[in-house]
Amino acid sequence: AQRLGGMPALCWRRGSGGTDRGGRRLVHFNSSRVDENADFGGNRITTSLYTWWSGPLKLPWEELFLKRSNFYFLVVSALQCWPEVSSTGGMPTSLFGLIPVVLMGMAIKIQEDRLRHQSDYRANTARCRRLVDGVFVDARWTDVQVGDLLKVCNREGIPADLLLVAASEPDPDTLRGACHVETMQLDGETNLKGKSAPAGLAAELGPTVETQLHSWAALSGSIDSEAPDGSPNTYNGTLHIEGRPAVPLTVVNMLLRGSTLRNSEYVLGIVVNTGHDTKVIQGLRAPSHKQSTLLSSINQMIVWIVLLLLVLCLIAGAAELALYHELDLVDHWYMNTQKEEDGVAATFLVNTVYFFLLLSAFVSVTLYVNILLSQKLIQYFMQWSLSMYDPESDTPMRVRNSQLVDELGVISHVFSDKTGTLTQNVMQFRKASIGGIAYGRGTSEIAVARMKRLGELPAGEDVEAGATEGAAAHSPPGGSVISRHVNFDDPALVEALGGSDEQGKRCREFFLHLALCHTVVTEVVYGERSLSASSPDETALVAGAERFGYRFIERHHDTVELQGPDGEPLQYEVLDVLEFSSARRRMSIVVRNSQTRAISLLSKGADTVMLPLLASGQEELVAQTEAHMHDHSNDGLRTLVIASKELSEEEYLSWSERYRRAASDLDEVEKKSREEPNAIDDQCDAMESRMRLLGSTALEDKLQEGVPACIADLVKAGIATWMLTGDKEETAINIAYACELLDSTTTVVVVGLKTHPNVEDVTRALREATAAAEESMELSANAQRGRRALVIDGGALGLLFGAAPDAPACQLEFLRFTQTCA
Asked: By C-alpha distance, which of 400, 411, 360, 462 is closest to 78?
């Protein structure tokens, strides 16, 4: 919810339409049934907790009944109005202290909710372009309805969940209907994701917005869409256009609310979901009253204090009743004793309540006020802290809920991703292995930090500084793209590229591969050329290719234009793109040289999946490349394997027919979207086989400023820190040393699938590690200061949390050992 406007709560409301069918919805366009779209919910969203009519009811309820101290004094104030037991003459004096406390608590909540209302207002009143009577008119986001056709321009936010129907076409002769979006507000990722119009629609609508509108007006039909859900990575629907076959729709065809259009002058999209039916809103949890651990503990303590007070009052009431006759209190009127005719039970009750009011100061009426003021002061100190200020973006820290600031003091575990959290997520091309020869000098930042921690760096030597200066000295003049994403120092590679021998040919083929095998698009921002990609790795690889002579110019739907080392234009026809996925862990592209007509498969990916796909007879080259990748991993660099394969025309056509048949099968498309085994991936595997190894790349992702000191502070505070990374084991360990998650005194236990292939081996390793840790703690008085750490890969975790009969025992050993880690 914070990504929508910084608010942690949502006033839940789900739209429904009269054309919902069995949980699905039917969205009509350009037909007589368009009016049925009005049955769906509007595009207004509400993230605020209170409104002008609910606030007067909810705020007093939360202040008086959810805070037990306030409820306690509310009861005391009510009892003080009972003249027979009141020690204040029937006046509710406690109420005069309670009212300011309640009003202050309400004022703080109103002030925080006011920010939510402002955020909602900005979101709901944002401007967009909506098609009305054949013309795009300026409208608010709240005016958008299901079935509307919207025009979104570059770098504008998407107002609702849209089906992409057309986009700006840079090449009128090649209509692709494609664009890119940034989904940072959806998933926190700054990488761009490619989107495309349904199959065949772009070619039918035309290249300009005028022809697209004219052609769209001639079409009529409906969109059979899935019911609204909160999964931004999946979508299932069907586009029905009268007189044409049905077209399956996936998430690739959808532009989701919360994303931002990039690299396209404009797109046209038809609204499928609005407001609280959009995926980003559906993915939010219903609002709940948030209370810190401190307040929850105080509420429990107040219960025990009140119980103790009641016990004391019962004892005092019983004692007064017993001493009533013994001390002859009948004639002492000023003692406010009860008359004998009132009865024993009534007298006991009145005396108990009387003592309860006398001792009501057991609980402080200003308790919550003191806590709220302290939390508010902490909020301001946090927001004023220069250590939490980012000067580049002029962004200070913002506390969304002051009542939760003390939760920072009870954190026991931190679970962190590496890329973009501990690191900058800005890749630089540092080293490469081509044809069994390693290129690139110097030591990365992470490797330098690791060697310093382990005492392996010679005294007085700064390896990284020398590497940077050398890289600058050998870098040719170029644009900022190269300067930002390339930090390479090795004149031997420049010399090899200019050679006419076999190694020179391999190097040129290697960088031509990097310039072709990607999904990068060029973009001009404020007059400066930049590269935008779905992954920062691809940006660095394309920049590396440009650094060594192969400049990526432009990508069209089925062509890629390059500039060669001598400035000559190069053009390749893109026949197929086998996209990257977390299951495949590789990306491939099939291209045809426009001049020679030769067809090639270019592939890159993780070594664990790429090396088994290589053709036989390359054992020596594979061994050399693996050794280089191991060295690069020790330097904390991210490695990728580069491979290719030449294809004959007949071989490609035979495979293409099978691949397109599988890709047009709706069942297989659905399986692929769920990352289940499917025929599409099977055909990809068939193509990506018996490949020729070209080499490997090594990219650096530098640590963010202050990360080592931050993690060191977390360790001192006794907070257990878990880091998740997709890097190789050696890279992960070295990064952990660099960011001070590990140091030379840490006992590291490594559990991997290669060394522990079954549950029994994992259990045994964890049990032995736990026993050694417990023995160390018994033998040494200072053992509690020793540090232990666990490094475990995804395969071993899969065994640990799998369905094997021995998995529960393994999980128990896992828990026991992690409790000794610090």
From this structure: 360
